[in-house]
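Deliverable D4.2, example record:
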Amino acid sequence: MPTRESPRRRELLDVLRAAQVPLGVTEAAEWMRLHPNTARLHLDALVSEGLAERRAEASPGPGRPRAVYTPRRAMDRGGVRDYLSLARVLLGRWASADPARAREEAMETGREWGRLLAVPPVPSGQPPAGRSVAALVALLDGLGFAPRAEGGDETDRAPERIRLLHCPFLELAEEHGRLVCPLHLGLMRGALERLDAPLTATGLEPFAEPDSCVAHLARTPAPREEEVDRR
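Output generated by the structure prediction step:
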């Protein structure tokens, strides 16, 4: 996680890369004009971040081996990321296919995603439908949708819809809504299936209000007796 000290660590990493030999704490501190204890903290932080390596160097005389540091040879993980462009390229490729087939594939991809992410809740006194919706809302909240359950009935108090106040893929939804929105609907359906919920997501209204989308929920039909017997 970035901290206020990150720029100083980056500078220290540059020093390690410029050095022709491994540096001990004292040498690194002199280069950076830092107290040795401060330099050691930064060096150990670079090691924990996978940017530097630490090893013991044998001492020419009596005493404990000293720790020396070298930069770890790897691709620099600093700099700009552009996952949005990658997503646009992939969605553009998907969008070039038959619209109906692309929507179906998006829905199924979302369903698999939902099954993967959903974790069945611990049994409790809460009715099954309400418990399942609560778990789905928690999942959507963790993904950044800012969900809010609305409506319900008297017997189970299960919400009738989930309002999504934020879209973590807003730019993509605006450009490729016919793929991104079915993906989200499939996500909710797959999660509810994994939760063994007695209801499903029947539809998703993109931008039902200027500031939100709405997913509609409905109870799934109970399996007929003969269908249960076949299982």
